[in-house]
Amino acid sequence: MKKSDFFYNLPPELIAQTPIEHREMSRLMKLDKNSDEINHCHFYEIVDFLNEGDCLVLNNTKVLPARLYGVKEETGAVVEFLLLSQKELDVWEVIAGPGKRAKPGTKFTFGEGLLKCEVLEILDGGNRVVKFYYDGNFYDILDRVGEMPLPHYITEKLEDKDRYQTVYAENLGSAAAPTAGLHFTPELLEKIKAKGVKVCFVTLHVGLGTFRPVKADDILEHKMHSEHYWLPKETADIINETHKNGKRVIAVGTTCCRTLESVATFRGEIKEDEGWTDIFIYPGYEFKCIDGLITNFHLPESTLIMLVSALYGYEKTMHAYEIAVKEKYRFFSLGDACCIL
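and the corresponding structure tokens:
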């Protein structure tokens, strides 16, 4: 298939710039896999579409406030750093801009001196390796001086950092939020559990590669980014019991979907597992674990809309997106949701 097959026209004003006041009040498009029926609801109604014995799998990764604004110690020139991955204690790979200001040996200060760093080396591709210096706990300081690494299509300032975290975020390590989970509240999760639905967790640390555009015209030539995942034994046991009982396993977000399908593909079964995945799911893929998906509306020509098309069907997915535009749903990370059940 061609990248252009997954293009759709999206008016810019439909790209959500701020989160809705109450998480669970986001709109929800319900897509029925069997009848092809489409219903327009609100997210709090998701409980009505889940059945006793079903299993809901959520990604409990926690987003780092990984965007830092600082100054070059020698000149006071402004610089922006984006933390990508930790290499060792206090040593990180970062994106630096402007890059010409971040040469090896250059020192920078953030948060009026709360955090300092020195550039150690420049990697192929232009990323920098830096070492940070500070007094106290690095993550506490990062929470004070860092900002959430919002995607490029969000230009409004996020007033509350917590709105780019799920209410069940636990394991620090993501450069972006698993946005399908942003719609849940503790109260809604309790209602879901009270209905007899099992709720369990995986961890996949979302990388910035999730926003990397597909450049190849032939999607099979696209190289996926790699992300670290962990599937605990408790979750594996719940999933296997759910399938044994003939009930559904529903992934909350493409990150959960990629984690579960990776383990099922790599290991031949769902079991406790930890590793890295660069799985690319597109139409023609045969799903080995999940039966349903809750997700947001994704960018045109992205690997995420390709994943949705693999589950729901290409033509039906593109038609659903046409309807979402017509009905003025809010798109992308801070926008509305759809569920495929």
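(Above: one complete record from the training split.) The helical segments are 138-145, 186-194, 233-244, 254-267, 303-312, 314-326.
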